[in-house]
Amino acid sequence: MNEPLAERIRPKTLEDYISQNHLVGENGSLTHQIKKGIIPSLIFWGPPGTGKTTLAHIIANESGRPFYTLSAINSGVKDIREVIDKAKQSGGLFTSKNPILFIDEIHRFSKSQQDSLLAAVEKGWVTLIGATTENPSFEVIPALLSRCQVYVLDSFGKKDLENLLKRAIAQDTILKSKEITLKETEALMRLSGGDGRKLLNIFELVVNSEEGDTITITDELVLAKVQKNTVLYDKTGEQHYDIISAFIKSIRGSDPNGAVYWLARMIEGGEDVKFIARRLLISASEDIGLANPTALVIANSTFQSVTTIGYPEASIILSQCAVYLATSPKSNASYVAIKKAQQKVRETGDLAVPLPLRNAPTKLMKDLGYGEQYKYAHDFDTNFAPMEFLPASLSGTKFYDPGNNPRENAIRDFLKNRWKKKYE
Hints:
The protein is α/β, with parallel strands linked by helices. It folds into four domains: 20-152, Rossmann fold (3-Layer(aba) Sandwich); 158-225, Helicase, Ruva Protein, domain 3; 251-326, Zinc Finger, Delta Prime, domain 3, CATH 1.20.272.10; 354-423, no CATH class. The protein is built from 20 helices and seven strands. It has helices spanning 5-8, 21-24, 31-36, 52-63, 77-91, 111-122, 136-139, 142-145, 158-171, 186-192, 196-208, 219-225, 238-252, 256-268, 273-288, 294-309, 314-326, 333-348, 363-367, 406-419, and strands at residues 42-45, 67-71, 100-104, 127-132, 149-152, 179-182, 214-217. The strands form two sheets. The chain has a five-stranded parallel beta sheet with strand order 2-3-4-1-5, sandwiched between helices. Strands 6-7 form a two-stranded parallel ribbon. Helix 6 links the parallel strand 3 and strand 4. Helix 15 (273-288) runs antiparallel to helix 16 and helix 15 (273-288) packs parallel to helix 17. It is globular.
């Protein structure tokens, strides 16, 4: 039986690897490390079909290291220990190049399974490379996460996907024997959803379904050959991202009906309760914020509750939270404020902390003026003393601008009363 096209043309070197230029391009953050063979333990985080497994294989090949692999779906603690023992033995032959242990879908490992990796990673018996489609901050235990560098892989862009198709036509032993013309690619792009593996699977299906060796790829042909997805919810593909987007936008748009509908689509599709609850937490802060601070408290309680009880009862709690957030007043003022502040930090760098705001634990620091002219707010009426808390070059800058809702209108009055012109 023939290997799938995606497997047949899997790149073996960095030169053949398509996309992720921010990681492995000419000036990529991983390029020089790979070339030198100095590889830290890594976690690749990105959507399906973005080259996480391929990049792990390339790293092993380029650095000349033994390569061991485990899948979190069917590996237990015993399997992990056996592989680590093998890696330790083979590592004896490589004094400066310890073996690589690749774990696919590492987010599916339990805490005990992840714990069993700690000693091997810490003592350098193996270099761990984990792949995950979920945020490792939530799914990987802190002790293991602190020992790894996290690199984010992006979905393939249109140009990357087209290059992938062209390379397949030119290099694959089966396809290059045919005369294939890419007349239209829009349907292929849309159906793949930025997933390189899915694109190649669809492309191969279309090519194999055509008689003869002369094939012209058009949108009409692709749509006619590819059966429409009848699955209610594909939690590993494009729908995973589209439906959570529709869910959050329904909440942001104050539509509880849309929110509950998209929530039901995810629940019926078996979506992870923690994934949904995390997005509710983010929405409570990003889209509601100080217009209703209780929203974050409700969302946090929801996360803790659904994590404890799971399905099916978790659906009731998720629905309650989604409706509450959708019907809450909205404000993204806090979200906008931190984005503005982060941009200013990137523009201005590490500006010095003004002397009045510095800590002065030693006599020398006091003599140098640390802490001088600082006004202790509680020594003043209304517990407020006017002074500048930003570096001198940013004096008077406003990052937070209260939203137009009852609670933040009260906050605006509070700030106007104290800061006068800045909030008028």
